[in-house]
């Protein structure tokens, strides 16, 4: 584990990552734990610009490898300018998505070789990995109804089969890593929040 914790939320669209990461951020602040809330791709000026380019609709084909290179360029900026300096000064980091999203979206769903992602992961992150990852598991049909009516970006415009592959990719990774906590995100929000609170309590006791 890094010196101070990095806690990540993962899941497909509408699974509640943004809502729950804000909730967790507020709850840690209430406990007087210095915490920042950030997201990927994004978190710095350049990384947010890369996010916009990554999610925009283009006339030309965008390959899976291009997406991998874009998210890792954004991640390098985010790690160098936000995440590492905060961890070094004793601040906890709550992040909406991180590298498991690259394995799920670009690896599993776009078909980019996992070895390429692993190499970039080692190269860019070196020794920095999340300490706790909440995977909010939601069937794609449910996700579709939650985000219906929204204007869709390039990634959100993918079909159900794509998101089924993303979900399978997350489930596979969750089974292989002890840091994962899988939450059934199809339940009412209060139930998901209550599970999150319970898991968080244990984590805070172990880490503060
Ligand atoms: N991406 C990638 O491809 N590779 C990478 O390495 C990384 C990212 C890091 C942007 O991510 C895109 O980046 C994403 C993958 C790609 N693209 N896609 N598709 P993002 O996380 O910023 O975008 P998003 O996944 O589209 O966010 P989202 O749709 O806002 O999802 P969310 O944050 O999980 O949902 P929410 O805002 O918390 O909730 C959405 C709505 O559902 C809201 O009205 C809630 O009140 C409702 N909700 C949430 N939970 C519940 C429950 N339990 N019951 C009822 N209603 C609920």
Can you offer a commentary on this structure?
This protein is an alpha/beta fold and 208 residues long. It is 56% helix and 13% strand. It is built from 8 helices and 5 strands. It has helices at residues 17-30, 45-55, 64-88, 99-109, 114-125, 140-147, 160-176, 189-207; strands spanning 6-11, 35-39, 92-96, 132-137, 180-184. Strands 2-3-1-4-5 form a 5-stranded parallel sheet, sandwiched between helices. The longest helix has 25 residues, at 64-88. The mean pLDDT is 95. The structure holds ligand Z5A.
**Structural class by secondary-structure content:** alpha/beta
Span between N and C termini? 13 Å
Major β-sheet profile: 5 strands, parallel
**DSSP helix count?**
8
The unreliable regions are: none
Mean pLDDT: 95
**Tally of DSSP β-strands:** 5
Strand content: 5-15%
Instruction: Please give the order of strands in the largest beta sheet.
Output: 2-3-1-4-5
Helical content (DSSP H or I, runs of 4+): 55-70%
> Looking at the structure, what is the overall shape?
globular
The run of helices and strands is: EHEHHEHHEHHEH
What radius of gyration results from the CA coordinates? 16 Å
Bound molecules: ligand Z5A
């Amino acid at each position: 584990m890094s010196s101070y914790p990095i806690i990540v939320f993962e899941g497909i669209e509408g699974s509640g990552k943004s809502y729950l990461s804000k909730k967790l951020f507020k709850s840690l602040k209430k406990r007087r734990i210095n915490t920042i809330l950030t997201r990927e791709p994004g978190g710095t000026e350049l990384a947010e610009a890369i996010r916009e380019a990554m999610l925009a609709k283009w006339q030309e084909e965008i390959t899976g490898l291009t997406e991998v290179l874009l998210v890792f360029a954004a991640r390098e900026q985010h790690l160098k300018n936000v995440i590492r300096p905060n961890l070094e000064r004793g601040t906890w980091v709550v992040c909406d998505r991180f590298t498991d999203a690259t394995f799920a979206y670009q690896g599993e769903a776009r078909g980019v070789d996992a070895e390429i992602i692993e190499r970039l992961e080692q190269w860019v992150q070196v020794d920095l990995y999340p300490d706790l990852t909440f995977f909010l598991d939601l069937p794609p049909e449910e996700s579709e109804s939650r985000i219906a009516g929204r204007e869709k970006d390039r990634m959100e415009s993918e079909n159900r089969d794509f998101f089924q592959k993303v979900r399978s990719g997350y489930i596979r990774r969750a089974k292989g890593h002890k840091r994962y906590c899988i939450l059934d995100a199809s339940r009412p929000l209060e139930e998901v929040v209550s599970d999150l609170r319970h898991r968080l309590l244990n984590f805070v006791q172990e880490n503060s």
